[in-house]
Amino acid sequence: MGYIDNFNLVLALLVLATCFSFSPVLGMKYLGPNLYAGEVEVYVNNLIAPNILLYNHCKSKENDLGLQKVAYGHNQTWSFRVNFFATTLYWCNMYWFNDMSKSYVQGGFQIYKATRDYDKCDGNCVRNVKREGLCFFNPDQSDIPPKFMFAWPKKSIIGIN
Ligand SMILES: *[C@@H]1O[C@H](CO)[C@@H](O)[C@H](O)[C@H]1NC(C)=O
């Protein structure tokens, strides 16, 4: 083994050690960026009720998806790669008109957070938006039931445009 080989080995170990120390939450499963390069596809499904439109505005630090209208039974979908230090976070502000209470229901949620979700949906992340709140589901692990993640905030807003 020559000088360069040893140097590269030390460099590789340093990089690995840095990855671990920068992501204590991920524990031993996170082996650095090269082993974690998969695409994540998120689906935000409007399952609130027939004829109810979901207004959805998702963004990350790098990417603003704009305000989207999602019809009942449809979804908004997009894909991305988790960044080097697994700080990738998509936040979505959503609202819809509640035909029962005759008022808008509005909430903001962490729809994809790498440190929370990377081992739960390694590929497809389904977020079912319902009257009660948001359910997270991984269609590739259909033996695991959908998980209720967020209820809508109690306070609703009136007069949103
Ligand atoms: C997304 O919506 C379409 C209908 O618009 C549906 O067929 C499909 O199953 C949905 N995808 C997921 C992953 O929920």
Automatic annotation (TrEMBL):
Main subcellular location: secreted
Signal sequence region: 1-27
UniProt keyword annotations, A-Z: Secreted, Self-incompatibility, Signal
Pfam families: Self-incomp_S1 (PF05938)
GO cellular component: extracellular region
Localization of this protein: Secreted
A GO biological process held by the record: rejection of self pollen
Top-level taxon of origin: Eukaryota
Similarity comment text for this entry: Belongs to the plant self-incompatibility (S1) protein family.
Protein name: S-protein homolog
Protein source organism: Coptis chinensis
